[in-house]
TrEMBL record:
Pfam (any one): TP_methylase
Ranges for domain Tetrapyrrole methylase: 93-227
Keyword line: Cytoplasm, Methyltransferase, rRNA processing, S-adenosyl-L-methionine, Transferase
Gene3D superfamilies given in the database record: Cobalt-precorrin-4 Transmethylase, Domain 1, Methyltransferase, Cobalt-precorrin-4 Transmethylase, Domain 2
Name of the protein in question: Methyltransferase-like protein
The species this protein was found in: Candidatus Symbiobacter mobilis CR
Keyword Methyltransferase appears in the UniProt entry: yes
A GO molecular function held by the record: methyltransferase activity
């Protein structure tokens, strides 16, 4: 059980979760998360999350490997406001300090997103920023981060890279952004990484193949950590001859560079 609150603040743990959100056959939890991460998640009573339902489903899976120290029904769960999901929660005018009241009272807390590491390509940075402002220790736990897994398996420059988030939805703006980022890659050697909502995978992929120079190396990594995981990186010229079997349902990471 959590210790009784003391004069010191609790710790905010950044708890990664598997990348199998929405899968009909989830991966075995202990194949993608270390036992230490599962033990920490199992003892926490206070949580900040993207989606309470997803959090409880994750903790139900944790309980099958490491028994929870308190029933699911007794957990204190707070969801990040929906507008933070849509607009991003890194803006300076967002105050997440009230969400950390349990930590201020000495309780350890967990921050979790729906897939992967919170605060990376997902909401949560405002909570981490608030923790630093309040003197609450922040401890990131070990688990999957799709961008890092994709980069490591790509053969692209791994010592100089940028995660650029999502490309514009507008087709013209998207092409302009791809050209801008390719110019950066050519000038500096910096690998460019982006993600997309799965149902826009195909349009994003087609724009990349059509827009990038033929000798630019283009990465696609889909279904990471899943049985059907696929990571391939070839010059664009290759992709124009041998299309990738990317689908509109599986999360993917795209990257390009020298």
């Amino acid at each position: 059980m959590n210790a009784e609150p003391s004069g010191s603040p609790g710790t905010l743990y950044l708890v990664p979760v598997p990348l199998d959100l929405g899968e009909t056959q989830p991966v075995a939890l202990d194949t993608v998360l270390p036992l230490g991460t599962l033990h920490t998640a199992a003892r926490l009573r206070h949580w900040v999350c993207e989606n309470a339902r997803s959090l409880r489903a994750f903790l139900h899976r944790v309980d099958a490997v490491v028994p929870l120290q308190q029933p699911l029904q007794s957990l204190h769960v707070v969801e990040l406001p929906r507008e933070w999901h849509k607009k991003g929660d890194h803006a300076g005018n967002i105050d997440a300090q009230p969400l950390l009241q349990p930590a201020r009272e000495g309780h350890d807390m967990g921050l979790v997103s729906e897939a992967g590491m919170p605060a990376i390509a997902d909401p949560g940075s405002s909570v981490v920023r608030a923790a630093h402002a309040l003197g609450v220790p922040v401890v990131p736990l070990v688990g999957p981060v799709s961008m890092m897994l994709a980069l490591a398996a790509s053969g692209l420059h791994g010592q100089n890279f940028a995660f650029v988030g999502y490309l514009p939805r507008d087709a013209g703006q998207r092409v302009a952004r791809i050209r801008e980022l390719e110019a950066v890659a050519q000038r500096t050697g910096q690998t460019q990484l982006c993600i997309e909502t799965p149902y826009r995978n195909l349009s994003t992929w087609e724009a990349l193949v059509r827009t990038l120079h033929s000798d630019t190396r283009l990465l696609v990594a889909s279904g990471l950590t899943l049985p059907r995981a696929c990571v391939q990186c070839h010059p664009v010229q290759h992709w124009r001859t041998y299309p990738h079997s990317l689908d509109a349902d599986t999360p993917a990471v795209f990257g390009w560079g020298a």
